[in-house]
Q: What sequence folds into this?
């Protein structure tokens, strides 16, 4: 009897195994007929065709890639059955990508289904309306299946690829649809609607992209993530697939990812100059703002753009493709040619919009170029006696949202909760590494020598700070606007920058004033730096932390909006009591001259005596 | 049950061998990639007239000779005085119209180059239902500037005659076509290339075609084999784009004209305005011959007349007492008329 039971229990397993084998057989056979590789298929019997080994191989790998990719693909359902779309999980703690136009009408919380049959609550984290990207976070698990990302610049036209998603909201059983195709083109530029939904440097595919696929992943043939689908060419064909879909490249999204995690309204960048192609085919500056960083770095009207962001530029589209993949605040190399001479500069990109402007625009009307939100199957209106769906029941008896605290509304932010979370994490990691600076004294006395061996004395305090280099000394007058006290001369405000550096170390983000997490930006050496921005009046001070060491690496002080910052780098950290203190400070003056102050000692003094008197 | 186990074991074995053979498929991917990189430079983007009322001012073409002959679809885009062409290598050229064949719906353009990468029409492949094909075209004008055109993949669903569905699909071409399961025949795609997986040319992507009753779009290509002799004839100068070079007969003192026949064409709005009949006077010679409004005049007395100017020019060479054979296109049919003044 017991043996019988066991046998019975085993039977379904065998049946499943058999059906898997049959599936491989049938799919492989169909594939063989379609002549993908060759006609070199010998048929043993009508029932059991003997397949070319390569066919089985290709098909097995395809099955494995789809199985791997499907795990991380999610379907998004708006509240009260309004619209929806697709998405893809990119980290095990539940961060997932989708399109801005999928989440724009969903509010702070939405429901996401996984192919494992579970429905999870998700909260909005950050949006990039210009790039049509949104970051959401699935809640309730720490071991979500995440897609692996690969370099999307390695994608070539003709490469096999596939889209997974929720076209026409078919995934009511939580099982997404798969559409296979090839890469039709790379580095495509698709114009924005106004200033939003610009698809720069995107991947074009003939894999079917339909309404509801928006926000879903595009995978390469190995099942690795290369893009996020969100747009198609339709024109007169109506809003269904015509074999021309576009995916935002995963490389672009990677540049934006930390910015999205900051919970801000993320903006794209402008050079402060526009370009046009000439009769001779060269791409030249045809307008430039004198207030732009590009102007300050020496770019002028008529200069020929040779390369931008490390890529050769031969057409306006190539220029726009580079500009479109970077968030505001990035420093990007640019090579231009004037009268035969080539010059390389590094330009800081500013935002396309003012933050308030971006907020205003996204309050506006529905967006033209986006994939339409698919209509859910119409429900019978009103009290027709039909059973209600789950969401309308929920609407009647609202369940308390256990994650409600994870959404904090604040102007300029998508979800301020994630900004504070990341700001405090970065600061905490720095303090864990460098020690607690909060009790590091009222007054700091930093002594050292500059690159010429001249003695340097820096005194930094809550109210007053001063510096003496050789025989010259300068002090900050707290009664006067710091923007007008950029000492020492030609340093662009090194003393002000050091003053705010001390203020941040002693006060921390909580007591500094207004401090936000901005995202990560490229530093001097390869790799990205986590950036906190503290604002005092018109002065913004940017604090850049290396994520690998958690150390504060660079400080940039902007005396005015869109001005050239005083940028100094902290080097050679060493142990002093319970703190790690910098061994040297490097900065560049406005003439481009490099300076280095080697620090011999830092004293933390409780003395209340004014530092200026001490210097003088 | 034993058989199932055996099959499972075999599948497992195959899977293991499959993973070992990974390197082999890498080579296949590389071969496929090189087929694409070799094909892309042979596809050109064509810009001409159009650009309003849903008529795109662009289409695609394929280079078929080292000297710069381009095979494309005969369409209103080529009516422009200036036809601009961007090669697959990203160079811009002004193209001249060498000739065309309205019955096959093809035209040959020429650009001034040497050693252009091209398909040889002497060495073409054919395909059959179930074969995998690639489509190269500038559909939707996605590839602007010097960007390479778009690639799509699909399978040949059927090889059949377009005339089999005559009356439903409007096409002057009635011969064999490759019908595809992919959405290839989009705006601007016409004149693009259909190739096999190895990048050998097998067909020319046809015009957009929509079922007048169901609204369904048809995707197809015309086999190059069907076009080959006409392509030759055009390149060899047996079919001319314009009468002026060919019409060397002495002018009759009292020539024929459309007005005498009682027919008027649409106003000349572009350099090569297609000769559509705008008005036919009741009881006139044209009306008696069966000419109706919206007929497109294809040939006058055995000579092709692609533009209104060509029709006028051609009639000037014919005596007004002669019976003039005229071929018109009416919908998707060609109609032979003979116009004789009383």
A:
């Amino acid at each position: 009897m017991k043996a019988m039971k066991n046998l019975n229990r085993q039977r379904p397993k065998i049946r499943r195994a058999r059906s898997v084998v049959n599936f491989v057989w049938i799919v492989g056979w169909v594939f063989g007929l379609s002549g993908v590789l060759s006609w070199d298929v010998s048929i043993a019997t009508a029932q059991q065709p003997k397949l070319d080994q390569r066919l089985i191989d290709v098909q097995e790998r395809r099955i494995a890639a789809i199985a791997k990719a499907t795990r991380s693909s999610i379907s998004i359902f708006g509240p009260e059955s309004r619209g929806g779309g697709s998405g893809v999980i990119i980290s095990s703690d539940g961060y997932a990508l989708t399109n801005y136009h999928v989440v724009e009408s969903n509010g702070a919380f939405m429901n996401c289904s996984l192919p494992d049959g579970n429905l999870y609550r998700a909260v909005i984290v950050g949006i990039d309306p210009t790039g049509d990207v949104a970051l959401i976070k699935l809640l309730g698990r720490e071991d979500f299946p995440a897609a692996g990302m690969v370099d999307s610049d390695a994608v070539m036209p003709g490469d096999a690829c596939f889209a997974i998603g929720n076209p026409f909201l078919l995934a009511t059983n939580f099982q997404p649809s798969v559409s296979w195709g090839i890469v039709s083109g790379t580095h495509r530029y698709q114009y924005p609607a106004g200033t939003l939904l610009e698809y720069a440097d995107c991947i074009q595919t003939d894999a079917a992209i339909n309404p509801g696929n928006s926000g879903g992943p595009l995978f390469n043939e190995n099942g690795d993530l290369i893009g996020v689908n969100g747009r198609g060419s339709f024109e007169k064909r109506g809003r269904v697939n015509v074999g021309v879909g576009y995916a935002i490249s995963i490389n672009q999204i990677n540049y934006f990812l930390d910015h999205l995690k900051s919970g801000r309204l993320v903006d794209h960048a402008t050079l402060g100059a526009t370009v046009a192609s000439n009769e001779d085919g060269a791409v030249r500056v045809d307008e430039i703002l004198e207030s732009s960083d590009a102007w300050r770095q020496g770019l002028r009207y008529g200069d020929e753009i040779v390369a931008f962001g490390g890529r050769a530029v031969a057409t306006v589209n190539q220029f726009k493709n580079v500009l479109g993949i970077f968030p505001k605040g990035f420093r990007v190399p640019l090579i231009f040619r004037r009268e035969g001479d080539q010059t390389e500069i590094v330009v800081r990109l500013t935002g396309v919009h003012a933050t308030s402007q971006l907020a205003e625009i996204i309050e506006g009307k529905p967006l033209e170029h986006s994939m339409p939100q698919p209509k859910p199957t119409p429900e019978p209106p009103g009290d027709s006696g039909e059973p209600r769906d789950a969401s309308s029941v929920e609407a009647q008896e609202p369940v308390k949202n256990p994650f409600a605290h994870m959404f904090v509304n604040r102007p300029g932010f998508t979800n301020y909760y994630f900004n504070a979370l990341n700001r405090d994490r970065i600061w905490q990691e720095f303090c864990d590494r460098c020690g607690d600076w909060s009790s590091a004294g009222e007054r700091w006395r930093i002594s050292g020598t500059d690159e010429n061996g001249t003695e340097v004395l820096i005194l930094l305090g809550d109210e007053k700070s001063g510096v003496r280099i050789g025989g010259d000394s300068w002090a900050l007058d707290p009664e006067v606007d710091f923007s007008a006290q950029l000492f020492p001369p030609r340093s662009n405000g090194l003393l002000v920058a050091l003053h705010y550096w001390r203020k941040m170390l002693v006060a921390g983000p909580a007591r500094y004033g207004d401090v936000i997490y901005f995202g990560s930006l490229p530093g001097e050496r390869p790799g990205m730096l986590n950036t906190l921005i503290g604002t005092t009046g018109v002065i913004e001070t940017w604090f850049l932390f290396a994520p690998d060491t958690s150390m504060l690496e660079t400080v940039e002080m902007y005396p005015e909006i869109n001005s050239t910052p005083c940028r100094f780098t902290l080097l050679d950290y060493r142990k002093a009591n319970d703190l790690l203190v910098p061994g040297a400070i490097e900065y560049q003056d406005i003439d481009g001259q490099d300076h280095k102050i080697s620090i011999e000692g830092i004293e933390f003094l409780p003395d209340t005596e004014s530092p200026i008197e001490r210097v003088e | 049950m034993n058989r199932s186990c055996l099959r499972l074991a075999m599948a497992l074995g195959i899977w293991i061998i499959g993973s070992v053979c990974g390197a082999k498929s890498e080579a296949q991917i590389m071969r496929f990639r090189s087929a694409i990189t070799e094909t892309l430079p042979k596809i050109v983007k064509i810009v001409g007239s159009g650009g309003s009322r849903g008529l795109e001012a662009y289409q695609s073409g394929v280079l078929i000779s080292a000297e710069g002959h381009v095979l494309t679809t005969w369409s209103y885009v080529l009516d422009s005085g200036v036809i601009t062409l961007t090669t697959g290598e990203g160079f811009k050229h002004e193209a001249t119209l060498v000739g065309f064949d309205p019955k096959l719906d093809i035209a040959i353009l020429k650009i001034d180059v040497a050693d252009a990468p091209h398909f040889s029409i002497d060495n073409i492949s054919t395909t059959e239902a179930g074969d995998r094909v690639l489509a190269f075209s500038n559909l939707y004008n996605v590839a602007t500037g010097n960007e390479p055109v778009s690639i799509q993949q699909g399978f040949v669903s059927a090889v059949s005659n377009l005339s089999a569905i005559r009356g439903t699909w409007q096409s002057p071409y009635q011969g064999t076509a490759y019908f595809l399961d992919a959405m290839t025949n989009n705006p601007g795609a016409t004149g693009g290339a259909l190739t096999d997986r190895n990048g050998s040319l097998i067909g020319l992507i046809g015009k957009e075609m929509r079922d007048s009753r169901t609204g369904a779009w048809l995707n197809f290509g015309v086999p190059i084999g069907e076009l080959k002799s006409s392509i030759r004839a055009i390149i060899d100068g047996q079919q001319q784009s314009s009468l002026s070079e060919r019409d060397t007969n002495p002018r009759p003192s009292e020539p024929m004209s459309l007005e005498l026949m009682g027919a008027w064409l649409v106003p000349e709005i572009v350099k090569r305005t297609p000769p559509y009949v705008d008005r036919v006077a009741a009881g006139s010679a044209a009306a008696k011959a069966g000419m109706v409004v919206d007929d497109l005049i294809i040939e006058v007395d055995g000579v092709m007349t692609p533009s209104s100017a060509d029709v006028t020019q051609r009639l000037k060479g014919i005596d007004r007492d002669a019976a003039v054979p005229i071929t018109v296109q009416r919908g998707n049919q060609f109609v032979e008329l003979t116009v004789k003044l009383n």
Summary: Chain B has two domains: 40-235, 258-339. Residues 241-247 of chain B have pLDDT under 50 and may be disordered. Chain B has six helices and 20 strands.
